[in-house]
User: Which sequence fits this backbone?
């Protein structure tokens, strides 16, 4: 890593676009492409080496985001981020794939697109759950919050205003959407602003920003890391059902639709449900959740042809009477979550449960409706800091 950093840091932008020839010290060999591929593999591993403290794993441990405290390990940490940006950009430019998976919010930064507060789910699912609860419940007289947030810095707690004089501005039902927007921006943008800027400086030395901005986050991930060949039969044999059975007509329609998709659309589905298009080397039987293996699972959602299928890497769902209450479905169905941190406890007649790798599939009336709504859900992206 250090040798490569020293070699590439001295190169100009135009030199970076030239042919890369790799020689490993102490080893004989002519680079006909194999050594370059090996170098990208090694560099990708070192980029996420915790000893460099450049990136930290997100909730599912399959994707990474910049470490807001990257300065703890080296005074040159921002130069390292510029180097990493150059390497990732060079890999795309030369058509080499890297085993480097980032959070959706970081892909959005690379693309220059505005983030939604919902993008924070892959970064901090517990905090996302809190925000969803705030938006879906009255907080007046319940939560004592201001337009500020606390950060830890070498054991010292600091209060950061989300806007001018924010620590003196209470959060109410009237302004909670603004609070959610600002606190999400702080976590996903401002907290890693220097690291992201340095990465992008190196990245766009190699690639044209206008060309890259034509892609969406899913396409950029595939551009960097490649397209996994998705084995639909392996996925099907490692899927669990809740509310449905393998013989349910909607489940039969679902697999029929999936078998009609090309590999790109299938990869979008895997990313939609699990948070990444990357499939474990052992196949879908090795999908991971928060506390270990967690299979791909499909849950029955309300019968409503207007609803889109929805997915979360982690959330709480509860049942109240005969109605499903889940913050993954449309706002007209309702939202609920269990308590965490500053939130009050919310109790329901039947217990909820946590789940990763979960798809909520409404009980559609026809195959055509199911396929259309599934395709729309996979293609639809968040635009700005939106609210349902």
Assistant:
């Amino acid at each position: 890593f250090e040798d490569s950093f020293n070699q590439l840091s001295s190169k100009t932008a135009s030199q970076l676009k030239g042919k890369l020839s790799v020689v490993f010290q102490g080893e004989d060999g002519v680079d006909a492409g194999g050594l370059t591929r090996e170098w990208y593999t090694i560099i990708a591993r070192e980029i996420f080496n915790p000893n460099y403290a450049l990136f930290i794993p997100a909730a599912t441990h399959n994707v990474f985001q910049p470490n807001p405290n990257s300065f703890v390990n080296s005074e040159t940490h921002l130069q390292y981020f510029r180097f990493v940006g150059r390497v990732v950009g060079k890999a795309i430019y030369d058509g080499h794939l890297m085993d480097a998976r980032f959070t959706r919010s970081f892909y959005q930064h690379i693309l220059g697109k505005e983030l939604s507060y919902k993008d924070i789910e892959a970064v901090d699912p517990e905090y996302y759950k809190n925000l969803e609860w705030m938006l879906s419940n009255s907080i007046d007289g319940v939560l004592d919050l201001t337009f500020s947030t606390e950060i830890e810095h070498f054991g010292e707690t600091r209060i950061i205003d989300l806007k001018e004089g924010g620590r003196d501005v209470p959060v109410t039902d009237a302004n909670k959407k603004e609070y959610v927007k600002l606190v999400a921006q702080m976590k996903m943008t401002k907290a890693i602003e220097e690291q992201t800027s340095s990465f992008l400086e190196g990245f766009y030395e190699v690639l044209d920003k206008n060309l890259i901005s034509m892609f969406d986050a899913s396409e950029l991930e595939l551009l960097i890391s490649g397209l996994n060949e998705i084995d639909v039969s392996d996925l099907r044999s490692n899927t669990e059902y809740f509310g449905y059975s393998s013989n349910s007509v909607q489940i039969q329609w679902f697999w029929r639709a999936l078998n009609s998709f090309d590999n790109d659309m299938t990869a979008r589905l895997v990313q939609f449900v699990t948070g990444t298009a990357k499939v474990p080397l052992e196949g879908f039987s090795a999908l991971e959740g928060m506390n270990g293996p967690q299979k791909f699972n499909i849950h029955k959602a309300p019968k409503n042809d207007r609803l889109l299928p929805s997915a979360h890497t982690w959330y709480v769902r509860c049942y109240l009477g005969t109605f499903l209450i889940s913050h993954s479905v449309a706002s007209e169905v309702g939202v609920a979550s269990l308590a965490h941190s500053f939130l009050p406890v919310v109790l329901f007649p039947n217990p909820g449960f946590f789940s990763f790798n979960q798809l909520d599939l409404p009980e559609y009336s026809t195959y055509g409706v199911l396929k259309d709504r599934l395709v729309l859900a996979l293609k639809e992206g968040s635009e700005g800091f939106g609210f349902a």
The chain has a mean pLDDT of 78. The chain has 14 helices and 13 strands. Residues 79 and 198 are 7 Å apart (CA to CA).
